[in-house]
Amino acid sequence: MRNPQRGILCAGCPHRAAYLALKEATRRKRGRVICGNAGCTAVGEVHPAAATCPGGMDALLPRYNQAVPTGGTVDEPAAPVCVHVAADLEVAADDAAERFAGLAAEGEITLFAVMASSRRFLARDAVEELGQRVLGLGADTVVVLDPFDAIRCAEVLGSLLETPGVHGVIFASPCAQLQRGEGANEPVEIDRYTCVACHRCFQITACPALSFAPPVYQVDPDACAGCDLCCNYCRTQVIYSPRSRMGVEEKSRARYAAAQR
Ligand code: SF4
Ligand code: SF4
Questions:
Q1: Residue 193: which residues within 8 A CB-CB, separation 6 or more?
Q2: For residue 195, what is the DSSP state?
Q3: Residue 183 pLDDT > 70, yes or no?
């Protein structure tokens, strides 16, 4: 797999999948705010498409680069929905209590979304400990989600967004750069004879492994990390994955196994 370019989420980045899940769930919510600092140059601030679109970052950044709200008073009411994105290591750090003080004042409904992708959080018990940490920081509930499981993410996030309070959501999937195991990253393929060049796969995911080679889209097999995210968005279903017979849990296990080799 190639190294990422600065400002672009890597091919197969689990943060991209988590962001898409959050945006899908919150897009029709009035007064939503997405904020945070998840460490990577792009995560926490930028729409995935903005990172690869010249000029797009400038146009879209103000919309997504929101300061963390400190409302909750008569003068400064809390946002109806605040999605506060944080990196796992930020949440585990000694100064986390100070850094995340006031989560409850950020929104009537606050999703405290923690990206658990680094090497330290590859084991299940480490993720569970992180969940306890999230509760200790003021979340009323905590749930662990595979960001690539779009259906479950939609169900769970939709339900959390109906309930006022602070909800911890841990998006657990290993960083794409840790998945070096053989066979874990077999690329997807686009059928060049049936792709209708609708641009949807790229416009939604902004995956750097996808590119337009007129008249159709193509996948760079050296760059594709085999996350299968783009397959979810091709309405004509012409992106073929070698993992099409695997369930979401099996795929998740394969990603963790590849990261631990
Ligand atoms: S499967 Fe699709 S979204 Fe995932 S890395 Fe490959 S081209 Fe990108
Ligand atoms: S979403 Fe599917 S049909 Fe549209 S450009 Fe991508 S591969 Fe082609």
A1: none
A2: -
A3: no
Using the predicted structure, report yes or no on whether residue 44 has a pLDDT greater than 50: no
Contacts of 244 (CB under 8 A, 6+ apart): none
**What pLDDT was estimated at residue 47?**
52
53 CB-contact burial (10 Å; exposed 0-12 / middle 13-18 / buried 19+): middle
CA dihedral defined by 122, 103, 65, 81, rounded to 10 degrees?
100
Does 107 or 93 have the greater pLDDT score? 93
Secondary structure class of 200 (helix, strand, coil):
helix
Domain 14-177 fold is: Rossmann fold (3.40.50)
Are the CB atoms for 43 and 19 separated by under 8 Å? yes
Ligand 2, CB cutoff 6 Å, lining residues:
190, 195-201, 217, 233-234, 236, 238-239
End-to-end Cα distance, the chain? 15
Please indicate whether residue 230, judged by its CB atom, sits closer than 6 Å to ligand 1: yes
**Could you say which ligand is closest to the alpha carbon of residue 201?**
2
Whether pTM exceeds 0.85: yes
- Residue 146: how many other CB atoms lie within 10 Å: 20
Residue that is written with structure tokens 């657990």 in the block: 172
Domain boundaries, the chain: 14-177, 184-259
For ligand 1, say whether the CB of 208 is within 6 Å of any of its atoms.
no
CATH number of 184-259: 3.30.70.20
